[in-house]
Design brief:
Blueprint: H1 5-26, E1 35-38, H2 42-52, E2 58-62, E3 67-70, E4 73-76, E5 90-102, E6 105-117, E7 128-130, H3 134-150
Antiparallel strand pairs: 1-6, 2-3, 3-5, 4-5, 5-6, 6-7
Helix pairs in contact: 2-3
Amino acid sequence: MMPRPREVMVMLWKKLPAVGCVLLAGCMTLAGKPTAVSSCSFDQVWDAAILTMADVQFETINKAAGALETQWVEVEGSRPAGFFQRDVNKERLKYMVEVKRDGTETVATVLQLREEWSPMGVRMRQWRGIPGNAAEEQAVAAAIAKRLKEKGC
């Protein structure tokens, strides 16, 4: 028996965050995202990126592809909920760092994925994507660059 169109839509809607993460990890352009550019070798930039993110557990470490991905980490919610502006929302984030050779330089690009959860509203009790914090992305890229500068390259 064929599933009804509504059931198909609900099933697809529930899988959307996972599909979105895969698409973001594999196909998203990182143009305009914060970078750490160095004349250091790929291995030195890779090691600096891992050390910079050492306080968070990794979900993916793929040196051949130059991809690092942290696990989700819950952080304090930045947006209050409802008419009374209650502090009941949750947020979580993960970082993706791409390390690639670009001619004579090696570039580490930083992307932050951020999601919000609320006990209220149409999508209550579901994680949904929100824009990453550009300042936090820049801070991670700057920390990688600082480690590389300390190595003298």
